[in-house]
Specification:
This protein is of the alpha/beta class. The chain folds into 2 domains: 244 residues, TIM Barrel (Alpha-Beta Barrel); 71 residues, Four Helix Bundle (Hemerythrin (Met), subunit A) (Up-down Bundle). It is built from 17 helices and 11 strands. Strands 1-2-4-5-6-8-10-11 form an 8-stranded parallel beta barrel, surrounded by 5 helices. Strands 7-9 form a two-stranded parallel sheet.
Protein backbone atom coordinates (compact mmCIF):
# COMPACT_ATOMS: atom_id res chain seq x y z
CA UNK A 1 0.00 0.00 0.00
CA UNK A 2 1.40 3.40 -0.98
CA UNK A 3 1.11 6.87 0.51
CA UNK A 4 -1.91 8.94 -0.41
CA UNK A 5 -2.04 12.08 -2.50
CA UNK A 6 -5.66 12.85 -1.53
CA UNK A 7 -7.71 12.94 1.68
CA UNK A 8 -7.93 9.63 3.54
CA UNK A 9 -11.48 8.28 3.72
CA UNK A 10 -12.76 7.64 7.24
CA UNK A 11 -13.28 3.96 8.07
CA UNK A 12 -16.71 4.97 9.42
CA UNK A 13 -17.84 5.48 5.82
CA UNK A 14 -17.01 1.93 4.78
CA UNK A 15 -20.52 0.60 4.06
CA UNK A 16 -21.88 -0.88 0.84
CA UNK A 17 -24.37 1.81 -0.22
CA UNK A 18 -22.42 2.73 -3.36
CA UNK A 19 -19.99 0.25 -4.89
CA UNK A 20 -17.97 0.09 -8.10
CA UNK A 21 -17.88 -3.40 -9.59
CA UNK A 22 -14.72 -5.42 -10.10
CA UNK A 23 -13.99 -5.26 -13.84
CA UNK A 24 -11.11 -7.07 -15.51
CA UNK A 25 -8.78 -4.70 -17.38
CA UNK A 26 -10.71 -1.74 -15.95
CA UNK A 27 -10.63 -1.30 -12.17
CA UNK A 28 -6.89 -1.21 -11.68
CA UNK A 29 -5.43 0.93 -8.92
CA UNK A 30 -5.23 4.02 -11.13
CA UNK A 31 -8.92 3.78 -12.04
CA UNK A 32 -9.80 3.25 -8.38
CA UNK A 33 -7.81 6.32 -7.32
CA UNK A 34 -9.78 8.42 -9.80
CA UNK A 35 -13.13 6.95 -8.70
CA UNK A 36 -12.28 7.70 -5.08
CA UNK A 37 -11.91 11.40 -5.92
CA UNK A 38 -15.41 11.37 -7.42
CA UNK A 39 -17.11 9.38 -4.68
CA UNK A 40 -15.45 9.73 -1.25
CA UNK A 41 -17.30 6.85 0.43
CA UNK A 42 -17.89 4.40 -2.43
CA UNK A 43 -16.63 0.87 -1.88
CA UNK A 44 -14.12 0.06 -4.62
CA UNK A 45 -13.23 -3.43 -5.86
CA UNK A 46 -10.11 -4.73 -7.51
CA UNK A 47 -10.15 -6.62 -10.74
CA UNK A 48 -10.63 -10.32 -10.10
CA UNK A 49 -7.27 -11.73 -9.04
CA UNK A 50 -6.83 -15.48 -9.15
CA UNK A 51 -5.32 -17.46 -6.33
CA UNK A 52 -2.72 -18.75 -8.77
CA UNK A 53 -1.56 -15.22 -9.54
CA UNK A 54 -1.02 -14.58 -5.83
CA UNK A 55 0.52 -17.94 -5.05
CA UNK A 56 2.96 -17.90 -7.97
CA UNK A 57 3.12 -14.33 -9.28
CA UNK A 58 4.28 -10.86 -8.26
CA UNK A 59 2.16 -10.20 -5.17
CA UNK A 60 2.97 -6.50 -4.89
CA UNK A 61 2.06 -5.89 -8.52
CA UNK A 62 -1.35 -7.44 -7.92
CA UNK A 63 -2.09 -6.06 -4.46
CA UNK A 64 -0.49 -2.62 -4.16
CA UNK A 65 -2.94 0.23 -3.76
CA UNK A 66 -3.07 3.81 -2.52
CA UNK A 67 -4.34 4.45 1.01
CA UNK A 68 -6.87 6.90 -0.47
CA UNK A 69 -8.74 3.97 -1.99
CA UNK A 70 -10.21 2.83 1.34
CA UNK A 71 -12.70 1.28 1.62
CA UNK A 72 -11.36 -1.13 -1.00
CA UNK A 73 -12.11 -4.81 -1.47
CA UNK A 74 -10.00 -7.57 -2.98
CA UNK A 75 -11.93 -9.85 -5.30
CA UNK A 76 -10.53 -13.35 -5.60
CA UNK A 77 -11.06 -16.01 -8.23
CA UNK A 78 -10.56 -19.60 -7.19
CA UNK A 79 -12.22 -22.77 -5.98
CA UNK A 80 -9.72 -24.38 -3.62
CA UNK A 81 -10.39 -23.52 0.05
CA UNK A 82 -6.73 -23.66 1.11
CA UNK A 83 -5.53 -21.45 -1.74
CA UNK A 84 -8.35 -18.98 -1.15
CA UNK A 85 -7.57 -18.87 2.57
CA UNK A 86 -3.91 -18.09 1.87
CA UNK A 87 -4.86 -15.45 -0.70
CA UNK A 88 -7.38 -13.89 1.65
CA UNK A 89 -4.73 -13.73 4.37
CA UNK A 90 -2.42 -11.92 1.95
CA UNK A 91 -5.22 -9.47 1.16
CA UNK A 92 -5.77 -8.67 4.81
CA UNK A 93 -2.04 -8.29 5.38
CA UNK A 94 -1.92 -5.85 2.47
CA UNK A 95 -4.67 -3.77 4.09
CA UNK A 96 -7.83 -4.61 2.15
CA UNK A 97 -11.15 -3.95 3.90
CA UNK A 98 -13.00 -6.93 2.44
CA UNK A 99 -12.35 -10.19 0.63
CA UNK A 100 -14.88 -10.97 -2.10
CA UNK A 101 -15.25 -14.32 -3.85
CA UNK A 102 -16.19 -14.26 -7.53
CA UNK A 103 -19.13 -16.57 -8.26
CA UNK A 104 -20.46 -14.54 -11.17
CA UNK A 105 -17.94 -14.35 -14.02
CA UNK A 106 -19.24 -16.40 -16.98
CA UNK A 107 -16.20 -16.33 -19.27
CA UNK A 108 -15.04 -19.64 -20.73
CA UNK A 109 -11.47 -18.95 -19.57
CA UNK A 110 -12.68 -18.64 -15.97
CA UNK A 111 -14.82 -21.75 -16.35
CA UNK A 112 -11.77 -23.71 -17.43
CA UNK A 113 -10.24 -22.75 -14.10
CA UNK A 114 -13.36 -24.14 -12.37
CA UNK A 115 -14.35 -20.87 -10.72
CA UNK A 116 -16.55 -17.86 -11.38
CA UNK A 117 -20.24 -18.38 -12.14
CA UNK A 118 -19.91 -22.14 -12.58
CA UNK A 119 -19.29 -22.37 -8.82
CA UNK A 120 -22.97 -21.64 -8.27
CA UNK A 121 -23.60 -25.28 -9.23
CA UNK A 122 -21.52 -26.34 -6.21
CA UNK A 123 -22.83 -24.39 -3.21
CA UNK A 124 -21.27 -26.82 -0.75
CA UNK A 125 -17.82 -26.17 -2.18
CA UNK A 126 -18.41 -22.41 -2.12
CA UNK A 127 -19.47 -22.68 1.52
CA UNK A 128 -16.22 -24.51 2.30
CA UNK A 129 -14.29 -21.74 0.53
CA UNK A 130 -16.13 -19.06 2.47
CA UNK A 131 -15.52 -20.81 5.80
CA UNK A 132 -11.81 -21.27 5.01
CA UNK A 133 -11.43 -17.57 4.21
CA UNK A 134 -13.41 -16.52 7.28
CA UNK A 135 -11.11 -18.62 9.44
CA UNK A 136 -8.09 -16.93 7.86
CA UNK A 137 -9.11 -13.26 8.15
CA UNK A 138 -11.05 -10.88 10.36
CA UNK A 139 -12.33 -8.59 7.59
CA UNK A 140 -15.69 -9.37 5.93
CA UNK A 141 -15.75 -12.26 3.46
CA UNK A 142 -18.41 -11.59 0.83
CA UNK A 143 -19.69 -13.26 -2.34
CA UNK A 144 -20.62 -11.79 -5.73
CA UNK A 145 -22.96 -14.08 -7.66
CA UNK A 146 -25.60 -14.30 -10.37
CA UNK A 147 -29.26 -15.26 -9.99
CA UNK A 148 -28.93 -18.51 -11.87
CA UNK A 149 -27.15 -20.51 -14.53
CA UNK A 150 -28.03 -20.74 -18.19
CA UNK A 151 -31.80 -20.46 -18.72
CA UNK A 152 -33.01 -21.78 -15.38
CA UNK A 153 -34.96 -18.89 -13.86
CA UNK A 154 -36.21 -20.80 -10.82
CA UNK A 155 -35.90 -18.74 -7.66
CA UNK A 156 -35.25 -21.86 -5.63
CA UNK A 157 -31.81 -22.28 -7.18
CA UNK A 158 -30.43 -18.95 -6.00
CA UNK A 159 -32.33 -19.13 -2.71
CA UNK A 160 -30.66 -22.43 -1.88
CA UNK A 161 -27.25 -21.13 -3.01
CA UNK A 162 -27.51 -18.06 -0.78
CA UNK A 163 -28.98 -20.15 2.03
CA UNK A 164 -26.01 -22.52 1.99
CA UNK A 165 -23.56 -19.62 2.21
CA UNK A 166 -25.67 -17.92 4.85
CA UNK A 167 -25.45 -21.07 6.94
CA UNK A 168 -21.65 -20.92 6.51
CA UNK A 169 -21.64 -17.41 7.96
CA UNK A 170 -21.64 -15.17 4.89
CA UNK A 171 -23.72 -12.04 5.46
CA UNK A 172 -22.89 -9.81 2.49
CA UNK A 173 -24.06 -10.74 -0.99
CA UNK A 174 -23.52 -8.77 -4.19
CA UNK A 175 -26.26 -9.93 -6.55
CA UNK A 176 -25.84 -9.46 -10.28
CA UNK A 177 -29.53 -9.62 -11.18
CA UNK A 178 -29.10 -11.68 -14.34
CA UNK A 179 -28.40 -15.33 -15.02
CA UNK A 180 -25.00 -16.39 -16.30
CA UNK A 181 -25.23 -18.29 -19.57
CA UNK A 182 -22.14 -20.47 -19.56
CA UNK A 183 -22.22 -21.61 -23.20
CA UNK A 184 -22.94 -19.50 -26.23
CA UNK A 185 -22.73 -15.99 -24.78
CA UNK A 186 -19.66 -13.81 -24.38
CA UNK A 187 -19.04 -11.94 -21.12
CA UNK A 188 -20.33 -8.78 -22.83
CA UNK A 189 -23.50 -10.55 -23.96
CA UNK A 190 -23.94 -11.92 -20.45
CA UNK A 191 -24.11 -8.33 -19.20
CA UNK A 192 -26.89 -7.49 -21.63
CA UNK A 193 -28.91 -10.44 -22.95
CA UNK A 194 -30.12 -12.42 -19.90
CA UNK A 195 -33.06 -10.41 -18.53
CA UNK A 196 -32.75 -8.41 -15.36
CA UNK A 197 -34.75 -9.93 -12.50
CA UNK A 198 -34.78 -7.39 -9.72
CA UNK A 199 -37.83 -9.14 -8.28
CA UNK A 200 -35.76 -12.23 -7.46
CA UNK A 201 -33.09 -10.06 -5.81
CA UNK A 202 -35.83 -8.38 -3.76
CA UNK A 203 -37.05 -11.78 -2.63
CA UNK A 204 -33.56 -12.68 -1.44
CA UNK A 205 -33.50 -9.51 0.61
CA UNK A 206 -36.86 -10.48 2.15
CA UNK A 207 -35.86 -14.10 2.81
CA UNK A 208 -32.52 -13.25 4.47
CA UNK A 209 -33.30 -10.04 6.38
CA UNK A 210 -30.16 -10.17 8.54
CA UNK A 211 -27.90 -9.99 5.49
CA UNK A 212 -26.62 -7.15 3.32
CA UNK A 213 -27.70 -7.31 -0.33
CA UNK A 214 -26.03 -5.10 -2.91
CA UNK A 215 -27.77 -4.94 -6.29
CA UNK A 216 -25.67 -5.08 -9.48
CA UNK A 217 -26.77 -5.09 -13.11
CA UNK A 218 -28.44 -2.48 -15.31
CA UNK A 219 -27.77 0.44 -12.97
CA UNK A 220 -26.69 3.48 -14.96
CA UNK A 221 -28.28 6.62 -13.50
CA UNK A 222 -28.27 8.52 -10.22
CA UNK A 223 -32.06 8.76 -9.78
CA UNK A 224 -32.41 5.05 -10.51
CA UNK A 225 -29.77 4.32 -7.87
CA UNK A 226 -31.55 6.45 -5.29
CA UNK A 227 -34.80 4.57 -5.88
CA UNK A 228 -33.11 1.16 -5.63
CA UNK A 229 -31.37 2.17 -2.41
CA UNK A 230 -34.80 2.35 -0.77
CA UNK A 231 -35.09 -1.41 -1.37
CA UNK A 232 -31.52 -2.71 -1.16
CA UNK A 233 -28.59 -2.11 1.16
CA UNK A 234 -26.43 -0.91 -1.70
CA UNK A 235 -26.04 -0.55 -5.44
CA UNK A 236 -23.05 -1.56 -7.53
CA UNK A 237 -22.26 0.16 -10.82
CA UNK A 238 -20.20 -1.56 -13.49
CA UNK A 239 -19.65 -0.25 -17.00
CA UNK A 240 -21.52 2.98 -16.24
CA UNK A 241 -18.74 3.94 -13.84
CA UNK A 242 -16.22 3.39 -16.65
CA UNK A 243 -18.08 5.02 -19.52
CA UNK A 244 -19.65 7.86 -17.48
CA UNK A 245 -17.72 8.13 -14.21
CA UNK A 246 -19.40 11.44 -13.39
CA UNK A 247 -22.44 9.41 -12.31
CA UNK A 248 -20.51 8.38 -9.18
CA UNK A 249 -20.42 12.01 -8.03
CA UNK A 250 -24.12 12.39 -8.83
CA UNK A 251 -25.08 9.35 -6.77
CA UNK A 252 -22.89 10.44 -3.87
CA UNK A 253 -24.69 13.78 -3.78
CA UNK A 254 -28.16 12.22 -4.07
CA UNK A 255 -27.60 9.88 -1.14
CA UNK A 256 -26.29 12.67 1.06
CA UNK A 257 -22.58 12.03 0.63
CA UNK A 258 -21.46 14.96 -1.51
CA UNK A 259 -18.00 14.94 -2.99
CA UNK A 260 -15.53 17.09 -1.11
CA UNK A 261 -13.67 17.83 -4.33
CA UNK A 262 -14.64 20.20 -7.12
CA UNK A 263 -13.79 19.23 -10.72
CA UNK A 264 -10.84 21.64 -10.54
CA UNK A 265 -9.59 19.82 -7.45
CA UNK A 266 -10.05 16.43 -9.10
CA UNK A 267 -7.92 17.60 -12.03
CA UNK A 268 -5.21 18.89 -9.67
CA UNK A 269 -5.23 15.62 -7.71
CA UNK A 270 -4.96 13.54 -10.87
CA UNK A 271 -2.09 15.65 -12.16
CA UNK A 272 -0.22 15.17 -8.88
CA UNK A 273 -0.99 11.45 -8.93
CA UNK A 274 0.16 11.08 -12.54
CA UNK A 275 3.39 12.88 -11.72
CA UNK A 276 4.09 10.58 -8.78
CA UNK A 277 3.28 7.49 -10.83
CA UNK A 278 5.56 8.66 -13.65
CA UNK A 279 8.38 8.59 -11.12
CA UNK A 280 7.55 4.91 -10.59
CA UNK A 281 7.60 4.14 -14.30
CA UNK A 282 3.83 4.17 -14.93
CA UNK A 283 2.99 5.61 -18.36
CA UNK A 284 0.52 8.49 -18.47
CA UNK A 285 -1.91 6.53 -20.67
CA UNK A 286 -2.54 4.15 -17.75
CA UNK A 287 -3.69 7.13 -15.66
CA UNK A 288 -5.81 9.01 -18.19
CA UNK A 289 -7.78 6.07 -19.60
CA UNK A 290 -10.13 6.06 -16.59
CA UNK A 291 -10.81 9.78 -17.13
CA UNK A 292 -11.87 9.63 -20.77
CA UNK A 293 -15.61 9.39 -20.13
CA UNK A 294 -15.68 11.86 -17.23
CA UNK A 295 -16.95 14.76 -19.35
CA UNK A 296 -19.57 12.73 -21.23
CA UNK A 297 -22.63 14.86 -21.89
CA UNK A 298 -20.79 18.16 -21.54
CA UNK A 299 -19.80 20.58 -24.26
CA UNK A 300 -16.21 19.88 -25.25
CA UNK A 301 -16.34 16.23 -24.16
CA UNK A 302 -15.18 14.96 -27.54
CA UNK A 303 -12.06 17.14 -27.51
CA UNK A 304 -11.36 16.18 -23.89
CA UNK A 305 -11.43 12.52 -24.85
CA UNK A 306 -9.38 13.10 -27.98
CA UNK A 307 -6.65 14.96 -26.09
CA UNK A 308 -6.34 12.41 -23.30
CA UNK A 309 -6.21 9.48 -25.73
CA UNK A 310 -3.77 11.03 -28.22
CA UNK A 311 -0.78 8.68 -28.19
CA UNK A 312 1.61 11.30 -29.51
CA UNK A 313 0.77 13.51 -26.55
CA UNK A 314 0.61 10.69 -24.01
CA UNK A 315 4.02 9.37 -25.04
CA UNK A 316 5.59 12.51 -23.59
CA UNK A 317 4.38 11.36 -20.16
CA UNK A 318 3.78 14.95 -19.05
CA UNK A 319 1.13 15.03 -16.30
CA UNK A 320 0.34 18.63 -17.24
CA UNK A 321 -1.54 17.25 -20.25
CA UNK A 322 -4.50 16.61 -17.93
CA UNK A 323 -4.52 20.26 -16.90
CA UNK A 324 -4.24 21.47 -20.48
CA UNK A 325 -7.18 19.27 -21.52
CA UNK A 326 -9.21 20.71 -18.65
CA UNK A 327 -8.30 24.31 -19.50
CA UNK A 328 -9.22 23.70 -23.13
CA UNK A 329 -12.61 22.32 -22.12
CA UNK A 330 -13.25 25.29 -19.82
CA UNK A 331 -12.50 27.70 -22.64
CA UNK A 332 -14.87 25.86 -24.95
CA UNK A 333 -17.76 26.08 -22.51
CA UNK A 334 -17.07 29.62 -21.23
CA UNK A 335 -19.70 32.17 -22.31
CA UNK A 336 -18.50 34.78 -24.83
CA UNK A 337 -17.18 38.00 -23.31
Amino acid sequence: MTDSLSPVVSPSLSGWRLCVAPMIDVTDRHCRFFHRLLAPSARLYTEMITTGALMHGDVSRHLDFDVAEHPVALQLGGSEPDALARSARLGQQWGYDEINLNCGCPSERVQRGAFGACLMAEPGLVADCVKAMQDAVSVPVTVKHRLGLDYDDSYGFVRDFVGTLHHAGCRVFVVHARNAVLKGLSPKDNRQIPPLRYDAARQLKADFPDSVFVLNGGITEAEQSKMLLSEFDGVMLGRAAWHQPGVLSEISQLVGEPSSLTPDEVVEAMMAYAESQHGQGVPLRMITRAMLGWMTGRAGARQWRRTLSDQSLLNKNDARLIGRAWEDLQQRVAPPA
